[in-house]
Write a structure and sequence with these properties.
This protein is an all-alpha fold. The protein has one domain. It is built from 15 helices and no strands. It starts with 8 loop residues before the first helix and ends with a helix. The C terminus is likely disordered.
Length: 456
C-alpha cells in the first residue's frame, strides 16, 4: 500500500502509474495475442470476428466496472483518512457485488451473443466465429469481474505492483495457451477464447490469495462477508455515472463498429489490428489518469487540495512528453506495426491510415483523461460522464456518419471522427477543471473543514 499524500508529486505519480502501465500493457496483450494468433495462423475472417466482439464485451463489462470505480474512490479516500473500519466495509460489499454481477452478466451474455452480433450487421462469413468467441468469453465473466474488481481495490490502497505481477504471469500463460490451442489442437477462434478466460481465472485466484495475506482490515474473509447498504449506496452514487459513461461509450463503439462493418472484412480486420495498437499507445495517458484519481482521492481525504493541483500539472507534463514520443513512433512505423497482425496489404494500408490520423492527437486525449481523473478522485463523477458522452455521441459518431456518407471520405472519415471527439472533450474538461467546482465534491471529509479544501 502506498501513501500518496507525501513526497514529490511527479515522482509519486510516475512510481505509482508505472506498475499500472506495465500491468495494463500485459492486460492488452490478452486481446493483442488473440488478434495476432488468429490473424497470422487462422485468417482475416477470424481476425475480424475477434475484433467485432470486443465492443460487445466492453459493453457488458462497462456498467459493472463503473461501480468498481466507486469502490476505488471510497477506498482511496477512507485510506487517506485512516478510517480502517469503513475500509473493511467497502471491500466486503465490493466482493458480494462482484460475485452477483459476474454471475448475472455471464448468463445474459451467453444467451444474447447472436442477437447482438446480428444487430451490429456482422457479415454472415464472420458470424459463426464471432458467436463462438463471444459465448466462451462470457462464460468466464465471473473471473474477469473478480480480477478487475480486486485490482481496483488494490489501486485504491495505493498498490499498483501486485496486479502487475499477476498480469505478467497470466499473460505469459495466455500466450502459451493461445499457441497450444490454435497450433496444436486446431481450435481456431474458440481456442484463443478459452486461453483468455483460463488465464484471467488464474489472475483472479492469485489476487485473492495475495490479498488474504495483507493487513487485517483489507484481507478478505469470505465466511463473514457483510453487505452494507450505506456503503453500496455511496459506491453507486460515485460509480454509476462512470458505469453509465462506460456503457454509453461501449454502445457508441458498437455503433462505430457497425459503420466499420459496412466496409467489409478487410476494413474490419484493419480496424481490429489498428485498435489494438492504438490501445497500447493510449495506455500511458489512461494510467496517468488512474494514478491521478487515486492521488486526488487520498489527498482530498487528507485535506490537501493544493497538492492535488500540483499533481495535476505534473501529470499533464509527463503525459505531454510521453505522447509526443508515441506520436513520432506511430507516424514512422505504422505499416510495420500493422504487419505484425497480417500480411494482407489492403488490411495493412487501411490500418496504417487509421494510426497516422489518430496518432497525431494523443496529447489532447491524454490531457482530457487526466482532467477527468482528477474529477473522479475528488468524487465529482458526473462531469466526466457528460464530457465523454458529449465527445462520443454529439461529435464522434455524427462526424463518422457525416464524413463517410455525406462527404464520401471512405474509411478515413471514420478515423478522423475519433480526434474530432477528443478535441471537444479536451476543451470541455479543461474548462470545467479551471472552474474549481470539483473541489467541493469530496465524499470523505478530512479533519479540516470543507472551506480549507476549496481554497483556490
Amino acid at each position: 500500500m502506498k501513501d500518496l499524500t507525501k513526497g514529490n508529486e511527479t515522482t509519486q505519480l510516475i512510481l505509482f502509474a508505472l506498475p499500472m502501465l506495465l500491468g495494463n500493457i500485459f492486460q492488452q496483450f490478452y486481446n493483442m495475442v488473440d488478434s495476432f494468433v488468429v490473424g497470422r495462423f487462422v485468417g482475416t475472417t477470424a481476425l475480424a470476428a475477434v475484433g467485432t466482439s470486443f465492443p460487445i464485451i466492453f459493453f457488458m463489462l462497462s456498467l459493472i466496472m463503473g461501480v468498481t470505480m466507486g469502490s476505488t474512490v471510497l477506498i482511496s479516500q477512507f485510506f487517506g483518512a485512516r478510517d480502517h473500519e469503513k475500509l473493511k466495509k467497502v471491500i466486503s460489499t465490493s466482493y458480494i457485488f462482484l460475485f452477483l454481477a459476474g454471475t448475472v452478466m455471464s448468463f445474459i451474455g451467453v444467451f444474447s451473443s447472436g442477437f447482438i452480433l446480428r444487430a451490429m450487421s456482422v457479415p454472415a462469413d464472420v458470424m459463426p466465429e464471432a458467436a463462438a468467441y463471444l459465448r466462451i468469453i462470457f462464460a468466464g465473466m465471473l473471473a474477469t469481474f473478480g480480477y478487475n474488481g480486486v485490482a481496483a481495490m488494490l489501486r485504491g490502497l495505493g498498490d499498483s505492483k501486485t496486479p502487475l505481477y499477476l498480469l505478467i504471469a497470466s499473460t505469459l500463460m495466455n500466450i502459451v495457451l493461445d499457441l497450444t490451442f490454435v497450433l496444436v489442437f486446431h481450435w481456431g477462434v474458440s481456442g484463443v477464447a478459452w486461453a483468455t478466460i483460463i488465464s484471467q481465472a488464474v489472475s483472479f485466484i492469485g489476487a485473492i490469495v495475495l490479498l488474504a495475506r495483507r493487513k487485517e482490515y483489507v484481507a478478505p474473509d469470505f465466511r463473514h462477508l457483510e453487505w452494507n447498504k450505506e456503503i453500496f449506496s455511496k459506491m453507486i452514487k460515485i460509480g454509476l455515472p462512470t458505469g453509465i459513461q462506460q456503457t454509453m461509450v461501449s454502445l457508441g463503439m458498437m455503433v462505430l463498429s457497425r459503420i466499420v462493418n459496412e466496409f467489409g472484412p478487410a476494413t474490419m480486420a484493419a480496424y481490429t489490428a489498428a485498435a489494438r495498437i492504438d490501445s497500447i499507445a493510449s495506455l500511458p495517458a489512461m494510467n496517468l489518469s488512474q494514478a491521478i484519481t487515486t492521488f486526488t482521492g487520498q489527498n482530498i481525504g487528507a485535506g490537501k487540495a493544493e497538492r492535488v493541483k500540483r499533481g495535476h500539472l505534473s501529470a499533464i507534463a509527463v503525459n505531454t512528453a510521453i505522447s509526443l514520443v508515441i506520436t513520432i513512433a506511430v507516424l514512422l512505423f505504422s505499416k510495420n506495426l500493422m504487419s505484425l497482425f497480417t500480411t494482407n496489404t489492403e488490411v495493412i494500408a487501411i490500418g496504417s491510415e487509421y494510426l497516422v490520423i489518430v496518432g497525431i492527437f494523443y496529447v489532447l486525449f491524454g490531457i482530457m483523461f487526466i482532467n477527468n481523473g482528477v474529477m473522479r478522485g475528488a468524487g465529482d463523477v458526473f462531469i466526466p460522464m457528460i464530457n465523454t458522452l458529449l465527445a462520443l455521441w454529439l461529435v464522434r459518431l455524427p462526424c463518422a456518419l457525416l464524413f463517410t456518407r455525406v462527404f464520401k471520405m471512405g474509411t478515413s472519415g471514420i478515423w478522423w471522427s475519433i480526434p474530432a471527439g477528443w478535441g471537444i472533450g479536451f476543451v470541455f474538461s479543461t474548462w470545467y477543471y479551471l472552474t474549481g467546482k470539483w473541489k467541493t465534491k469530496a465524499v470523505v471529509k478530512a479533519k479540516r473543514e470543507v472551506e480549507s479544501i476549496v481554497e483556490p
